[in-house]
Write a structure and sequence with these properties.
The chain is an alpha/beta fold and 384 residues long. The protein is built from 13 helices and ten strands. The structure holds pyridoxal-5'-phosphate.
């Protein structure tokens, strides 16, 4: 029985990643930039990893910059853009991860434009086109899938609009990679990814940078990563990340398969069993592993605690903001009241979750609900 429903926060190391990491840590630990034969072997493996990653995206190997994860990648895109296009406006959607929103705010300052989303949390393409037509917008940053709701963004349409208006596009694909097919992403100028979201080690990730941005530079102080990012490459973690991605992609089902079915059955059952429950983004395309549900009463922190006591790991929203901030900016942008946002919990299953795991989680939620309400819980409406 798998009771871990916080996979959008992080995932455990998958067996393939663990084996690759251990082998590399034992046998290929030398610095890939040192002038020895042993180091040359590590360097060759590093380049092989780069090719493997690029092949998954249909991108050239030179476009891959290994780094410490998506927060670094997102920050570096805005910092680079600020250097090469100091006068251009930069647009982000209102539901981006804080590593995009905060860095764009600090780096791009008054040139930052926040684009609205609809009630389902998808970018308002009409607003985007209007802003592009007005002129001056040089970069648009849109996540592929939202970490809190799982809602998929119209990144293909956004990319087409950016091309039409000659703006560059950055896609934060952190939640998409390993859960959805990668086709088409590599058309963007910049893509960020993070190993620990798909069964790889933590603290390792990558940025794909399109060829026309050959001057791209992240952190400085060395010539590693073809002079795009300084610092000794963490080859064992890179090897683990590539093994994890290979494994995930080998088992990926284009329509989400059993994962989606288990989630959808769970949502249908809870709709019948718990009065007033609602699911954010239920009517639009979402990641197959994610369900964001708003309960009729009680703060989400209490639900999280009580489920935790029963062995289920769920979250109030994004892990980064848990308990530290006000209600979710993602739900607020979708028009949720702050009371609704405070009653919302995020459930995100691991890819191997079975329908039975969702059923067990549903049982626990229904029991907790009935403990408070008895069998009348479904009919009773309590105002907050
Ligand atoms: N972008 C999105 C959409 C995320 O969900 C996360 C992590 O939750 C990040 C960026 C940051 O990733 P990392 O932990 O690799 O810095």
């Amino acid at each position: 029985m798998n009771r871990y429903f916080d996979a959008n926060a992080t995932t455990p190391l998958c067996p393939e990643a663990r084996a690759a990491w251990l082998e590399a840590a034992d046998e290929f630990w030398q610095n890939p930039s040192s002038p020895t034969r042993a180091s040359a072997r590590v360097h060759a493996r590093l380049e092989q990893a780069r090719e493997q990653l690029a092949a998954h995206f249909g991108a050239p190997a030179e476009s891959v910059v290994f780094n410490s994860g998506a927060t670094e990648g997102n920050r570096d895109v805005f910092a680079y853009w600020n250097r090469v296009e100091p006068g251009g406006a930069v647009a982000v959607s209102a539901v981006e991860h804080p590593s995009v929103l905060e860095n764009a705010r600090v780096i791009s300052g008054g040139r930052l434009v926040k684009l609205p989303v609809d009630a389902d949390g998808r970018l308002d393409l009409v607003a985007l086109e209007q802003r592009l037509t007005d002129g001056g917008l040089s970069l648009v940053s849109l996540m592929a899938a939202n970490n809190e709701t799982g809602v998929l963004q119209p990144w293909r349409e956004c990319l087409a609009l950016c091309r039409k208006h000659r703006a560059a596009m950055h896609i934060d694909a952190t939640q998409w990679i390993g859960k959805m097919p990668l086709g088409g992403l590599a058309q963007a100028d910049f893509i960020t990814g993070s190993g620990h979201k798909f069964g790889g080690p933590k603290g390792v990730g990558f940025l794909l940078v399109a060829g026309e941005h050959s001057g791209f530079q992240g952190q400085r102080g060395g010539e590693q990563e073809n002079a795009h990012r300084a610092g000794t490459e963490n080859y064992p973690s890179i090897a683990g990340m590539i093994a994890a991605l290979d494994a995930r992609i080998a088992h990926l089902s284009a329509d989400g398969g059993a994962l989606r079915l288990g989630r959808d059955q769970f949502e249908a059952r809870l709709t019948d069993a718990i009065g007033g429950v609602r699911f954010w983004g239920r009517l639009v395309d979402r990641l197959p592993n994610t369900s964001s549900l708003c309960l009729r009463e009680q703060e989400n922190t209490r639900w999280v605690r009580r489920l935790d006591q029963r062995g289920f790991a769920v979250s109030t929203g994004s892990a980064c903001s848990t308990g530290k901030e006000g209600p979710s900016h993602v739900l607020a942008a979708m028009g949720a009241s702050s009371a609704e946002a405070r009653r919302t919990i995020r459930l995100s299953a691991l890819p191997e979750a079975k329908a039975g795991d969702w059923t067990a989680l549903g049982d626990a939620l229904i029991e907790l609900w009935q403990d408070r309400h008895g069998d009348q819980g479904n009919a009773q409406v309590i105002q907050i």
